[in-house]
Amino acid sequence: MSSSSSDAGSLGDTSDFRAIFFEEADEHVAAIEGILLGLNIAAPEAEELNAIFRAAHSIKGTSGMLGFGEIAALTHVLESLLDDLRKGERPLTEEILDLMLRAGDMVKMQVAHRRGTLPEAPDAGALVNELRSLAEQPAQPGASPGRSVRRFSVRLGPLAAPVDTAELELMLSGLAEMGRVTPVEMRNAAGGEIRFEVELEGAEADLRSVLALVVAEDAIHISRAGEPAPAVAPPTAAAALGDDDGEIFVDPAKWKARQKSATTVADAGGAPASPAAAAPRAASSYDEFVTPEQMRAARASLEGEAAARPRSPGRRASDDPTATFAQYGRRASDAPAGAGPMGRRSEDRRLPGAAADTASIRVGIDKVDRLVNLVGELVITEAMLAQQLRVDAKDSAYATGLVDLGRHARNLQEAVMSIRMVPISAVFTRFPRLARELAQRFGKEVELKMSGETTELDRGLIEKIIDPLTHLVRNSIDHGIETAEARVAAGKPRCGTIVLSASQKGGNIVIQVQDDGAGLDRRKILERAAQRGIAISPQASDEEVWQLIFEAGFSTAEAVTDVSGRGVGMDVVRRNIQVMGGGTVELASKEGAGMTVTVSVPLTLAIMESMSVAVGSQIYVLPLTAVVESRRVEQGDLAGVAGQGWTLRIRDDFLPVLWLSELFAAPSAAGRRREEGVAVIVEAEGGRVALMVDNLLGQQQVVVKSLEANFRKVPGISSATIMGDGHVALILDISQMVQLAHRGARKSAASALQA
Amino acid sequence: MAKSILVVDDTRSMRKMVVAVLQGAGYAVEEAGDGDEALEKAKTRVFDLVVTDHNMPRMDGVTLVRSLRGIPAYDGVAIIVLSTETGADLKAKGREAGATGWMAKPFDPQKMLTIVRQFLD
């Protein structure tokens, strides 16, 4: 076997590995953070510490390979600390926990930098020092001797060509993070030498691997400082062990034991390691326990044995050319467990800790989206066929078949959509950390409880919900929960409680942020409203008063103090929730007892419950969540208000009226008078508006298609869908409608839209 | 026929790198993401060589080596542990379990091929 490929012996293009690593690193850091926050400081679970250790370890391994020295250096110290913790050599403290959380953040930033999403390289130096000094402190005197720091003299050269200065600096700063670097001579030129001394606690192999990132291996010369250069080691398998790790010098007893056992192995194999064969393997990064010669000898004797051995019964069935399908079938079911390889395998599967249920594959989101689109097309085609068939052949066998097809198509659609679904724990996991930090900052005692983390939500929504929820939790801690003293004075437990919960209700996900803080202060909100000139009756219900904090601008810096800050950014929160397929935010508050904010968003943005309306020959689609009601409008129901266009009176409200026919220059059905038709009352952030249409066509689920991706962005339109008859229908952007109507600029808006 | 190698590592990026190096040299490489998967694959066919990570969830590399050595057909197969951990105690355990060699991560691709070739060519 010789290599024919040109890049044999190198990794070649590492961009694929980098991409995988970035993804992995994100997951590992998230896992580390999640576990750290769930740790019981007094008695951490060994398995949890192991899991964090493994995550740090994985990051370190790959970043070392990819030349991300700074990430490797940081995860290295983190790993050392974790190793002490998991071995029980050091108790877990708040300080260590905080430091590890910060290390996780730093890794995240370092990864972002390497990925190119963070322009400036983060400075991990201080953090690494903190971690190292912590790791060097003997935690329990006498428990462990601590790590020995070794001094190495490094000589790089003679250099074939000058080393890239940036890389050299990166490498040196990487080393400086691992230990102390003292430059001796820096002649970075062809034929020159770079010499420095470095003190670090790693093995020589670690040092060598860092150096190899910038300098060819044969130019690297390392000797232990203050010691004579090591004599050329005799090229035997046993000696190869010596190079790697200084521990051999520390513990001669072990060294002897090892030497002895190495000899035993060699004796047993019958073939002493030949110096010539072992020589190239005496590299510092590899230990050989058995030589290839011994291996070959063992294999030869084994193969002879195997030839003499009868074949196992399980194998025979398949090898027999006369075997029938019946035999194959029988073999699987009839063979007693352990009779053949198949049977035995199923037995052996039950190894300790085997977790077959975690099997998963990683798929690019673009592939899933393509699948969602294709299934959407399928559902639409089916709907088209069904519609045609209703007309042509109502009772034929085709109709029955089509009903089945429809059901399968919808089941398939549901199954495909479920791939995009992500448990909301992906969002929730960030909150324990946030709560902890905010509580510390505001000097409060807060306990965060979470429930319904497994509730699933469309991946696209997961990202959008983070900001509003963060805002709500922050508000609760900052302004809702009182200080411990105030709480005790009010007869409440010192520690405030925030409950974050998620559940599915129909096609919606309901997320609640509930606190047992002070609640909203009705009097202060009313005062604030008066200051801002907002008219509200003093007899208004609590619900109406709470609505005030959603007013844009109600939340100014002043409000933070005046209205116990509850209004902070609530208008922004509501807007962000509303753009998520018409999500809603509701408040419930009881003075002195706390407040509950309930956020409701659709499960997915890819499918929408909708109402379709007709304007002339055109069909428009409205998100059902935005529709409040609809009513037939007769002549005289509408009233023109000078300078403000037309309004429709609904009970005590006067709603601005928009004619879709004018807005989109789509002529109404012939002969229809302007003042007659159906008004659909829709609601979005900023209020309600009456949309005048010719007819309501009905409610149905539609597959939402991006207009931008397929055509271009169109004002007043959020997206498009394909109706059962194959026609494209536009989905209206209700917030834009409301804005247009309230601006009272119908004419200019209409011309703008037509342009 | 190309010699076959089983690469076991729970870290996907690392596994892919090892695979790339070995495949680049013309070997037929299979991957396993943990010890269980590795054992399963090892029981369906006998690989010519196994490269395994040590620190993996559920079953570590040394345990995997021990389990592989429990399969008679694997008596003559070289098993190399590839780990960032190079502690002497651990390596001694690896050897007792039946590992053929212990290689440090990060690894030099050239060196890995040199070692692998000695057992396969």
How helix-rich are the residues of chain B, as a percent range? 40-55%
Q: What structural class do helix, strand and pairing data of chain A support?
A: alpha+beta
Structural class of chain B: alpha/beta
CATH topology of chain B: Rossmann fold
CATH topology of the largest domain in chain A: Heat Shock Protein 90
Number of E strands of chain B: 5
Low-pLDDT segments of chain B: none
Broad shape of chain A: globular
The CATH homologous superfamily of the largest domain in chain A is named Histidine kinase-like ATPase, C-terminal domain
Residue stretches of chain A low in confidence (pLDDT < 50, at least 5 long) are: 1-6, 141-147, 227-283, 309-358, 556-568, 745-752
What is the percentage of strand-forming residues of chain B? Answer: 15-25%
What does this structure look like?
The complex is a heterodimer of chains A (755) and B (121). In chain A, the strands form five sheets. In chain A, strands 15-19-20-18-17-16 form a six-stranded mixed sheet. Chain A has six domains: 15-135, Up-down Bundle (Four Helix Bundle (Hemerythrin (Met), subunit A)); 150-224, 2-Layer Sandwich (Alpha-Beta Plaits); 237-303, no CATH class; 365-422; 431-602, Heat Shock Protein 90 (2-Layer Sandwich), CATH 3.30.565.10; 607-754, CheA-289, Domain 4 (OB fold (Dihydrolipoamide Acetyltransferase, E2P), Beta Barrel). Chain A contains 29 helices and 23 strands. In chain A, 46% of the residues lie in helices and 20% in strands. Chain A is of the alpha+beta class. Chain B is an alpha/beta fold and 121 residues long. Chain B has a single domain (4-120), classed as Rossmann fold, CATH 3.40.50. Chain B has helices at residues 12-24, 35-44, 61-69, 88-97, 109-120, and strands spanning 4-8, 28-32, 49-53, 78-83, 101-104. Chain B has a five-stranded parallel sheet, sandwiched between helices. At the A-B interface, helix 1, helix 2, helix 10, strand 5 and helix 12 of A face helix 1, helix 2, helix 4, strand 5 and helix 5 of B.
